[in-house]
Every structure is written in C-alpha cells, then in structure tokens.
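Researcher: I'd like a structural prediction for the single chain below. Treat it as a standalone chain; there are no partners to consider.
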Amino acid sequence: MLGPILKLALEKTSVVHNTVIPIADIPSFTDYFMRLCDAFEGHGYSLKIFSAALLVPMIHSAELRLIVWGDRQPMLRMMVNDLTELILPFQGTVFSILDNLK
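Model: Treating it as a single chain, here is the predicted structure.
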C-alpha cells in the first residue's frame, strides 16, 4: 500500500497531490495520504518505516505538510524517527524549494 506514495513522491514533482491513485474510492493522492495518516494514527504503532514513508511526500507538497502539521498535530508525537532512520538523506529535504504554495 505504501508503494504508490513512495514512487510518486520520489519523482520530485510538485503536483503529487493532484495525481489519481488507481484504488477504489480514493479519487486523489491527497485522499490516499489522509487514509494513510488515519491508518498510522489508528494502528501504525509508531512504526518508524511507516512514519518515514509518510514524511517523503511532504517534501514536495505544502498541502500534505499542512494536513500533518495543521490538522493532525497529535500524529507528530507518534513519529519518533531520528535523522538516521529517514528513507531519504536529511540534507535533501531541508533545502526544498516551495513552489506550490497557494
């Protein structure tokens, strides 16, 4: 289930949240991401690989960052990854250019 989120996010596209996901009853990537957040909060058990996978698409999408940092702040307490446990190198995520702000 995490395959599409990682594939699309690693393509370095700023239109990740507009991508159609070929899963029934999920019209957009944003809805898919929100369902993954629900799964992480509900039964993710603070798995470090699950939280690392959720952090990847937020690199290129201000909308996805707003979902986690705005609407789902309690979820951040369950993400206990340190810099060595991220899927991508930390330096590549710090200097991301925000070009999709509305």
